[in-house]
Amino acid sequence: MSPTSRRYADGLGHLQLLASAIAGRSLEVAAVEESKPAWTDGVTVFVDADVDPTRRLASLVVQSSLIGAGSLDPTILTELLRRPALCLRYLTVEAQRALSELEPLLPLSVRGLVDHDLADRSRSPADSLAIAASRENLAEPREEFGTIRPRLVQSPTTRNEDGDPAQGYVPRGKGPRQLHELDREDDVVGPVGELLSSPVGGGGGIGRLLRRLFGERRSSGGGHPGADSPTHWSLRATRGSGLIAVSTVAAPVPEGSWFGRRGFRYPEWDSHKRRYKPHWCTVEEVEPEPSLLQSFAVPDTLRLRRALERLGTDLERHRRQLQGDDVDVDATVESFVELKAGSAPDEAVYIDTLRRRRDLAVLVLLDVSGSAGEPSATGVAVHEHQRAAAAALVSALYELGDRVALYGFRSQGRAAVRLLRVKRFRDDLDQHTIQRLGGFVPGAYTRLGAAIRHAVAILEKDSGTSRRLLAVISDGLAYDHGYEPLYGEADSRRALAEARRRGIGSLCLSVGARTDVGALRRVFGTAAHASIPNTDVLPGIVGPLFRSALGSAELQRKVTQNYERTKGRRGTERGTA
Amino acid sequence: MTNVTRPYYLPVGNEERVFKAAFHQGLSVLLKGPTGCGKTRFVEAMAFDLQRPLITVACHDDLTTADLVGRFLLHGGETKWVDGPLTRAVREGAICYLDEIVEARQDTTVVLHPLADHRRQLPIDRFGITLEAERGFCLVVSYNPGYQSVLKDLKDSTRQRMVAIELDFPPGDVEEKIIVHEAGADHQTAAQLVALGHAIRRLETAGLREVASTRVLVAAARLVAEGLSMRAAARAAVAGPLTDDPLVTRGLFEMIDAYLSEDSADGTD
Q1: Chain A residues with beta carbon closer than 8 angstroms to that of B254
Q2: What is the Rg, in whole angstroms, of the alpha carbon atoms belonging to chain B?
Q3: A161, A160, A162: which is closest to A172 by C-alpha?
Q4: Which domain holds residue A57?
Q5: Distance from C-alpha of A36 to C-alpha of A140, rounded to nearest angstrom
Q6: Residues with Cβ within 8 Å of residue A310, at least 6 apart in sequence
Q7: Residues from chain A contacting residue B79 (CB–CB below 8 Å)
């Protein structure tokens, strides 16, 4: 997308709600290419950003109504392929039918567009198609109605079929718009439809060939066009789709340079020499790049909230309250004694049953290393599963009133461990947060230990609560330069033990990944690690998982407190002796 | 009776007949419906028609059994029993309306069980007595199934003791009449607000906790009646209460501009 069109697109984003309301499902709004008529691909409505608002509104309403009234049904669209004249005639009739069907929902200002005589003749898209196919004399549709581009319409059901292994091309996350549209086109229409388009541009045979070439040589996830991004091929038997390109450079990493910044230094546990390597890893907190913002649907969190709400809350009877269910006899007697003695009695003489606030802070750490971009058993990238789980967890906890933060992490050697800031403890959870999360493109490696140590530091510094929890969402074990699996396992386990000593519980979730989870179990412990196929199962397991993690941290904290108290007492005894 | 005129309620289906039938048979009523669709107004109108006093309790998550039944208070040197709203309704034979019952704790709602079924009794364990409900006592609870911030569901044992009446936002023409009556707005204003409300109800955005209810549309119309422009009124009464998210707010403003005409008569926009 050119810088100009992106600027327009940004200016049109606020029309999104209007379009979604009329269509009855989530739509995006973007600017159409220079002086082309408005159209929609079923996901985005493209309207001219430069015309006057009344006309733009009319275009938007017509195109959204087409979606809302089911006019862009795939069976109809196949009839319209390769027949531009029929397409226009269909639009003339069907737009009227769609507008009149949704008329109560339309703004009054555009209701004038509805031609009831024409609209009443058609009861369904098929009727409209029949009228359009007849020899009857029909007027051309009004200019602001735009056009239908049957080849480019994407039905909502085909949207999730990205990354079909049979195609031998694995999208590694959300790429630039051009690549996206090609994918969509490829999904919906077969080669027949593609032959129609320009042979050189996007959808044609040559274009497809070029795309294949580019698509497999360079990850679609990022990098500047023309930039040199060396890749290597790796064969992994455990994964679903055979050949997978894993970039060895930071090309898909959007947030800027790996070098020349100052970060936080953390030690690393050397399991070979049984000692810490001091100041070994440099961790940096970075903002995800704004250009990659992308929203996605957050799964429904109602069940998840229900699973989490009772965590750490109990009813307790509190004595000496100003109001309550019952009279606190001890307090009453005391207050009478005070009264008789001539002093002012305490009026807090009731017993009340109150729910203890749980005072919980959770930091969610999402693995966005390259391996997460690989497809899961269902064909959808592991990253998308993990992202959905992270979004669901964070919104559920946020809505429950807990303090919650979300960071992505990946690394490129010990000097460049990155924590990508999605939501800090003090940030609100809004569309921006979701968009930041949606813009993540998996890449690079996993240095789990350093990421955990920094997350623990954040929890200690910013959480401000007594119960603290670190939730890692990862697909497999740590791997980085000089961080081979066994070494990484030992270091991560060590980092978690340090966290527990400070009263921070930890748990780990693997969503949709097919890697060996044994290693994660060894690091996190079987009670605090769960591997699930998708986010639907999350509500069922999250309660016990959180409870056990909180329990172990609580225990450890008490042990530490006891130890320190005894130590303190011994110190004073020795002092007095 | 405190009300001299009947509270304004336009029936959409057979809800009034069901309610009165349940009342005469001594059954408890469960009202389901989104917030702001007219549940409370419906109960008020029914209480007026049936000539019973209405006692309303807004439930919250710290509502205890004692809050409903009553408690001992200390007055000088003695303890004194004070009836709770539920006990009062049982004694007086009033309609007791527990608004948003799911907000109350589940250990609280079990006190309703013997009242809600055929026994119609309220045990008061502090005295060791059981009160028989007076004739005319009717328990009405309201419940919002899709309520976003509520995690509790109503217990099945509670639900099964009730007759359920489902209310929803009224259809466009009825809603228009309601707005005209409640706010004294003209039909043109009401029609535009109804179209806006219906459009917002179709949204499934994560940023919206609730949709635009009849109540907020009435509020907007009332602001218009005070001389505000329609857009300004809708921004204040519809967009503002629905969301805090700046992106969603901007989208809603855009919808308001599209749906409501610009009446420049007073220029308060």
Answers
A1: 14-15, 17-18
A2: 21
A3: A162
A4: 3-153
A5: 16
A6: A543
A7: 327
- Exposure pattern of B49-65 as b/e (b: 16+ CB <10 Å)? eeebebbbbebeeebbb
Query: Could you tell me if A52 and A145 lie in one domain?
Result: yes
**Whether pTM exceeds 0.90:** no
Structure tokens at B39: 């549940």
Q: Do A18 and B255 touch (CB under 8 A)?
A: yes
Q: A200 with A229, same domain?
A: yes
Q: What is the mean pLDDT of residues A487-499?
A: 87
What tens digit of pLDDT does each residue of B84-99 get?
A: 999 999 999 999 999 9
Strand order, beta sheet including A39-40: A28-31, A44-47, A39-40
Task: Decide if pLDDT at A254 tops 70.
Answer: no
What pLDDT, in 10s, does the model give residues B60-90? 877 888 889 998 887 777 888 999 999 999 9
In angstroms, what separates the C-alpha of A530 from chain B's closest C-alpha?
24
Q: By mean pLDDT, which of A316-320, A537-541, B50-54, B140-144 is the weakest?
A: A316-320
Q: Which residue of B has its CA nearest to A54?
A: B258
Answer yes or no: is A570 within a domain. Answer: no
Give how far Cα B193 sits from Cα of A56, B172, B196, B225, Å: 22, 10, 5, 13
CA distance A531 to chain B (A): 26
> How many angstroms away from the CA of B224 is the closest CA of chain A?
18
Domain boundary among A116, A133, A153: A153
> Which candidate from A395, A400, A430 shows the least CB-CB separation from B247?
A430
* A449 and A492 share one domain: yes
| Whether pLDDT at A260 is above 60 | no
Instruction: Give chain B positions within 8 Å (CB) of A313.
Output: none
Q: Do A501 and A545 belong together in one domain?
A: yes
Torsion of CA A103, A109, A113, A116, to 10 degrees: 40
State whether A84 and A184 are in the same domain: no
Q: Which residue of B has its CA nearest to A400?
A: B149
Tell me if A17 and B192 make a contact (CB, 8 A cut-off).
no
- As a residue count, chain B comes to 269
The verdict on A208 and A130 lying in the same domain is no
The distance of A264 to chain B (nearest Cα, Å) reads 33
> How many structural domains are present in chain A?
4
Contact list, A24 vs chain B (CB under 8 Å) = 202
Instruction: Indicate the residue of A24, A336, A434 with minimum beta-carbon distance to B206.
Output: A434
Q: In what order do the strands lie in the sheet with B54-58?
A: B54-58, B95-99, B138-143, B28-32, B162-166
First vs last C-alpha separation in chain A:
79
**Whole-complex ipTM:** 0.75
Q: Which amino acid is at A294?
A: Q
Residues A88 and A66 in one domain: yes
Question: Is the pLDDT confidence value at A161 over 80?
Answer: no
Asked if B206 lies within 8 A of A355 by C-beta distance, the reply is no
Q: Of the candidates A446, A445, A429, which has an alpha carbon nearest to the alpha carbon of residue A437?
A: A429
User: Is residue A331 included in any domain, yes or no?
Assistant: yes
Which among A16, A428, A432 has the least Cβ separation from residue B251?
A16
Q: Is residue A255 part of a domain?
A: no
Higher model confidence: residue A355 or residue A18?
Answer: A18
How far CA A275 is from CA of A33, A417, A492, A494, A522, in Å, comes to 61, 21, 14, 11, 20
Q: Are residues A349 and A373 in the same domain?
A: no
For the stretch A331-348, pLDDT in tens is 888 888 888 888 888 788
Q: How confident is the model at residue A439 (pLDDT cuts 50, 70, 90)?
A: confident
pLDDT band at B268 (very low <50, low <70, confident <90, very high): very low
DSSP H helical segments within A112-243, as ranges? Answer: 116-119, 125-133, 177-188, 191-196, 205-217
Determine the number of helices (DSSP H) and then strands (DSSP E) in chain A.
19, 16
Residue B159: band (very low, low, confident or very high) from pLDDT cuts 50, 70, 90: confident
pLDDT 10s digits, B91-120? 999 999 999 888 787 778 888 999 998 889
